[in-house]
Each structure stands twice: as structure tokens, then as C-alpha cells.
Amino acid sequence: MFNRFIQKSTDYLILKLLKLDPSNRKITNPEERRKIAYLESWVSIIGNVVLAAIKLILGFVMNSISLIADAVHTASDVLTSAVVLLGFKFSAAPPDEKHPYGHGRIEFLASLLIALMLIFVGFEFGKSSYERFLANEKVAGSILVAVFMLASAVFKEWMSRFSIELGNKISAGALIADAWHHRTDAIASVLVAVAIIFSKYGYYRIDAVFGFLVSALIVYTGGTMAYDSCSKLIGEMWEEEMVRKVKEAALSFPGVIDVHKVFIHDYGAYKEISLHVVMDSTLNFYEAHELSEKIERLIEERIHCRATVHGEPARTV
Hints:
The protein is mostly helical. It has two domains: 233 residues, Cation efflux protein transmembrane domain (Alpha-lytic protease prodomain-like, Up-down Bundle); 74 residues, Cation efflux protein, cytoplasmic domain (Alpha-Beta Plaits, 2-Layer Sandwich). 70% of the residues lie in helices and 9% in strands. It has nine helices and three strands; from the N terminus they run H-H-H-H-H-H-H-H-E-E-H-E. Strands 1-2-3 form a three-stranded mixed sheet, covered by helices on one side. Helix 8 crosses helix 9. The longest helix is centred in the N-terminal third of the chain and has 32 residues. One of its GO terms (cellular component) is membrane. It is found in: Membrane. It is a multi-pass membrane protein. Keywords: Membrane, Transmembrane, Transmembrane helix, Transport.
């Protein structure tokens, strides 16, 4: 039910704010991808600022150190969302003399930076859990504070899944990494609520034990994302599905016998494709050149990638 709500609310925001078709599950158009990333960033920034302000006000009204500390943690998530926003903004810069293929890989750098920040948060989680375990002290706070913490966690989990949904839609690791920052905030709120409740029954270390487990998960997730970002910066093997689409587009033209040596170079939103196309040997030079241009245009229309076709005549026996 919660997942369905995530899907519906995400589609509603895409339709109403961006005027895009929410049924499109894989968006490759650079401009549309950028709009989706901006939507995630601004929803995250506004959501975190509002939630942090509410926590801070209630923290002072209720004299709750737990709420005030959690407000600071929530406010810090604004930084990661700002990295996403700036990353996509700079990655949209046009090609220049030094960067003829554009600046799309700044996306991967943004994802790497957020992943490293996530690892740092994980270690901080572990450190605070260790200190709380040694202190073995009662956590101050009322049941009302605990209830608000849990409500806050539900909202942050919505933000996390919202970011994941958009990240999957545009295949952006930076958005997935940002989602995990939302999730760590949700987990932190749950742990504080658990600590408050269990402290009233004398179980002072239970949240510290949970904190250790959660910190390990966060560090592992951040490490995985950092590895994935580095792998993309170095250059990964292209997806078979995209190769299939390229071949399918080329083979849809009469006169094309075979397609091979398909190479895809990933520059974030921009991708460069080169392919060898075996053509009917009866085609003259002009016809072969015209066919190559038609194939390139179709690939660019379907996949939003720049394509370069190398034509080869079919061998005759």
C-alpha cells in the first residue's frame, strides 16, 4: 500500500510540476532527465528545511535535546540534495574545447561525493552508537517526542523512496545516493524513538546495538555506491539492452545485412555510439552514405545518443 502511494504521488508531481508523461519508466532525454533531477533536489531541500524547522521549534518548546539534535541531522541532508542539484546543473554545460563530449560525467562525480558523505555518516552513526553503549544512560524525552520522531521517520522514508523512484526512472546514481541520506535520517529518528521508549523500561543500550547494525549497513551501501560511481567514471561495459536497441534500429532499414562492433561511450546524460553496418553491396557510394545518415538519425531519435555509422559492403562469393 505504501509503495502504491509512493508511485501515485511521484507520478502526480511529475505530471503536474514537469508536464511529463509519468508512465515513461525509463527517461533518456537529457532535458527531461535534468528536470527530474531538479524535482528530486528541490522536493528534498524544501522537505528537509520544513521538517528541520518543525523539529527545532518543537525541540525548544518541549525542551527535548533529542529533537533538537535530530533537527540538525535533518538540516544536514540539504547539503547532499544541493550536491545533486549542482551536479546536474554543471553536467548540462555544453561541450567546449577541452571537453568535446560535454560535462555529463560530473553526474558520476556528484554520485561519488554523496556516496563518500554517506560513508562518513555511517561512521558517525557507529561512533555515536559506541558512545551511547558505553554511557548506558537513560535517553530523555516524552512519549509524545517519540511519536513525533516516528511520524518524521515515515515522511523521510517517503522522501527516500520518492528519490529512488526518480533515480531509477532516469538511471541516476546520485539520486539513489541522496535517497539513502533520507533513509539514514529516518533510521536515526526511529532509533531515538526506540531509545526513549525502551529507556522508560530500563533498556538503555538497545538503540546502541541497533545503531551498530545500521551504521554497518550505511557504510556498506555508501561503499557500494562509491565503487559503482568510480566504475562508471573509468568506463563500464555497455548494457546488452542498449546494444539490442541500436542493432534493432539499424536492421529496420532495407539494405542493411548485419550490425557489429557496437561501442557505447557513457557521458552521463550524453552517450556516443559507433557501429559497423554491413550493407547491400549493390548500393552506390551516395546511397550507402544516405543510408548511414538515416540510421544515425533513427538511433538518435530512439535512444537520444549521438551515433556514427561505419558502412561496410557485404562480401559476395
